[in-house]
Amino acid sequence: MTKHMILNAFETNAPGFMPPGQWTHPQDESFNYTTLEHWAKLARLLERGKFDGIFLADVLGILDIYGGNADAALKAGAWTPAHDPMMLIPAMAMVTTNLGFGVTGNLSYEEPFLFARRMSTLDHLTGGRVGWNIVTGYLDSAAKALGRSAQLPHDERYVAAEEFMDVMYKLWEGSWEDGAVVRDREARMYADPAKVHTVHHHGKYYDMDAMHRCEPSPQRTPVLYQAGSSTAGRAFAAKHCECIFVAGTSQADARSISDDIRRRAAEAGRDPADIRIIIDGVVVVGETEAAAQALLAEHQRYLIPEGSLVMISAGMGVDLSKGDLDAPLGPVKSQANQSATEALTRRDDVWTPRRIANHLHAGRGATIVGSPTQVADEMEEWIDKAGIDGFNLSNGFRFRTMENFVDMVVPELQRRDVFKRDYAPGTLREKLRTKPGARLPESHPASGYRR
Description:
- This protein has about 450 residues and is of the alpha/beta class.
- The protein contains 15 helices and 13 strands.
- Strands 1-2-3-4-9-10-11-13 form an 8-stranded parallel barrel, surrounded by 7 helices.
- Helix 6 packs parallel to helix 7, helix 7 (about 230-240) crosses helix 8 and helix 13 crosses helix 14 (about 400-415).
């Protein structure tokens, strides 16, 4: 069977993300992000294009590293303001049948019991189409918003994350046995008490004695996403995650990261084939190469350079408003997003603040420009040479960029049989893995918590 690439739309419940400033275009629809119809329209478009899912990024804190305050973030609309992405999922699920929903949940500031309940509810409401993007956060402003003086050190956040996952698996996989829900009207018994168990967890970071409040959802544990490419992040992803987002700025970068993650997964006893690696990207497509280049120039005219610096400053934990705009970025020690820092300071690709400011995707991943044939060629090249499985595509001008991709590029990819013509049946996990079974495989550590 031909292996088909994975396509996700990369979105935030905000007026702007990557590339920042596109909301200033007179035809852009980002101002409608506060309405349900806006998100329903996007969901219908993505399902028409057979996208695997919509990936909803999120941060809890304000982006206040650049310039030492939030002024530039507010002016540029750079991930500011940002509303709760989880609220969008039921509305989008209501108007679609197959589209998946990956949503960010920051475990550093969640109570495990409440978060497990919320995700199980979403898995029920979507019919098993939800995934969790596991993040530990990178903003001190988020820590302060939640009543803490600062966030935990980077690597300790992953130590705490391991314990959080332990509690999640106990709740999702171990609290309710298979067959616990009987719904026997004659016996007047909804669930068999002998098959529902209290979870006892007393650790360094979390303390709990509770039954999971939800009956088992279609997937039990949602599809597990993760976007950390730091050393600690890769180790965590290789052990737990099914879809891993990387921010390689070159095919060689992405290949190095993907090979390392799959090697680590094999060492952890998992099947590397169960892991999907996806790179961030922007596609600008036109009927011809000249039309695509003209559209790229249009994108660049509406780009807010300072907005890019706001976002990268927050990611790196470094104020890029200071110093030489043309000086190459060097290694930085911070407790912020080490994946972003590593991607922008590798020696095989020189990034300066000015280059970041004027780059359509702010140095995060692939920027592909051309006719449908040229775009498809380059996407296939990334799949082959970077060792990845698919793309997380930013929208650019909402929704024209995605409409162009669905109408022009998707048919070309389908003609080449590198992208599906229709959805596989089953849950999001089954669609992504194309294997039977809605639950995590036996090789995954979650299986050890089942009764």
